[in-house]
Amino acid sequence: MKILVVEDDPETGDYLRKGLLGEGHAVDLVAEGREALAQATLHGYELIILDRMMPGLDGLSILRALRAAQIRTPVILLTAMGNVEDRVAGLRAGADDYMVKPFAFVELLARMDTISRRPVLKEEVTQLTVGDLTLDLLAREAWREGRRIELQPREFLLLRHFMERPGRVQTRTILLEAVWGIHFDPRTSVVETHISRLRSKIDKPFAKAHLQTLHGVGYVFQP
Fold first, then answer.
1. What digits encode the pLDDT tens for the residues 35-60?
2. What share of the chain is helix, strand, coil (3-state, %, to 5)?
3. Extended beta strands in 35-179, E state
4. What are the pLDDT digits (tens) for 76-96?
5. What pLDDT score was predicted for residue 119?
6. I need a labelling partner for 54 at 20 to 30 A (CA). Which of 22, 86, 202, 214 fits?
7. Count of H helices and E strands in the chain?
8. Measuring CA to CA, how many Å separate 21 from each of 18, 39, 40, 80?
9. Distance separating alpha carbons of residues 11 and 152, to the nearest angstrom
10. CA separation (Å) from 209 to 147, 163, 200, 222?
11. Residue 220: exposure state from Cβ atoms within 10 A (0-12, 13-18, ≥19)
12. Which one, of 145, 144, 172, 147, lies nearest residue 158 by Cα?
């Protein structure tokens, strides 16, 4: 699942990001309200986890703006504001669920599962197709020329990232942040290693290579 976490507390934000990445989700973390609204408007997230007390633009304003723009992405409000009036205001603004801090991560996962079973999410895209390669978002596997390709969790996230951005150059820094949630260069070969493994599965057995290296720049997925 592609998730936007909107949380201005660094410790809580990092805790959520690491936990969700560990569950195999793709996570973007934003700590400022206006940036969060821009991200949620421009990108096709499958879930938004939203704090109410945010700098720049508060959570309810973000939520109301999204619903006014007919963006129906499910939203879980995660906030320290827990009285009845606050809960009612959040739900009436368009939230799909409301959790109060401090919270249990396992409960958050359970609530995410509940939201994912609602009929509205069954209309979400369940596969990506670019050229002759198809990625099944539910089975987390790829198909090319009638051949099934099994993917490890990080390979799946990496391929999904590329297939959602065909023809766009992805630098090592972008990939570290988007797929691994690393916001600094750890000076390891983790990106190169996973690119190599992914190529061996989606490209090497076939005549044409989709995943190309632009030396000194990054990588690009070509249809």
1. 999 888 878 899 999 999 888 889 99
2. 40, 20, 40
3. 47-50, 75-79, 97-100, 127-130, 133-136, 141-144, 147-150
4. 999 888 889 888 989 988 999
5. 61
6. 22
7. 9, 11
8. 5, 19, 19, 23
9. 29
10. 15, 14, 10, 8
11. middle
12. 172
The encoded tokens of residue 108 equal 């958050």
> What's the CA gap between 198 and 152, in Å, rounded?
9
Number of neighbours of residue 196 by Cβ within 10 angstroms? 12
Q: What is the spatial distance between Cα 174 and Cα 161, in angstroms, rounded to a whole number?
A: 10
Instruction: Write out the H or E segment, with its range, that includes residue 216.
Output: none
Segment 102-106 shows an average pLDDT of 91
For residue 139, what are the contacts with CB-CB under 8 A and spacing of at least 6?
A: none
The answer to whether residue 187 scores a pLDDT higher than 90 is: no
Structure tokens at 166: 């065909």
Calculate mean pLDDT across residues 99-106.
91
Count of beta carbons in the 10 Å neighbourhood of residue 2: 19
- The DSSP H or E segment spanning 223 is none
Axis crossing angle, helix 84-92 with helix 59-68, rounded to the nearest 10 = 30
Main-chain dihedrals φ then ψ at residue 222, nearest 5 degrees: -100, 130
Do residues 128 and 144 touch, judged by C-beta distance below 8 A?
A: no
Give the pTM.
0.54
